Amino acid sequence: MENIGTIVLATGAFGTAAFGIVEALKWTKLSDAGFGTILKVLGPLTETLQIAYGSDFKSLLRAQYKGEQKELARVIRQGMRIGLLEENASRIAQFLGMVNVEKLKDAARLVESGGELPSELRNVLGRFELAVDARIDAALTLAQNHYVGAIRVSASIVAILIALATGLYLGREYLFQALLVGIAAVPLAPIAKDLLTALQSASKAIRTRP
Description:
Number of helices: 10
Helix content: over 70%
Radius of gyration: 26 Å
Number of strands: 0
Order of helices and strands: HHHHHHHHHH
Shape: rod-shaped
Strand content: under 5%
Largest sheet: none
Structural class: mainly alpha
């Protein structure tokens, strides 16, 4: 039982080390994993971001993507509000599935000209913002899922490579065991301590039994 606990702890530590190595590689393209999903989900809405932030808006969003998700959501939301114009209102309304296409165009025209919005157009603009928020939330959630998946796959590859190198160092007869440890390391890392505690408690209970 104690040997099993030692193996579990070592495997968890191994997986944690693999995650640490992957974290250190975030200066590479790995940090951009999932970013393309945001642009894909937002679709024609990215036109508003180009209007608001210029032709290099993707670099701005990519930099924000590496930071706080809430800040990125705020930047996207504000950019879409600023970039909504009469000329793109129809395409955006159709993409979002809004019924009042002409009223959204009217609202965008009044905002551009600095005119005061009547309550009806304020409501239309509010529905536009709600639809945009839903798209942004979906885009960021999906992108984060892709990012986490990429991190886990990368950590798994690193763990297996280190395990194989360790197996070769110890001797070819240990290659298979090392490969199994490498495969188990990444998924086991988050629960290794809890699992070890449970095994130690079980071991103590067995030893103290009359």
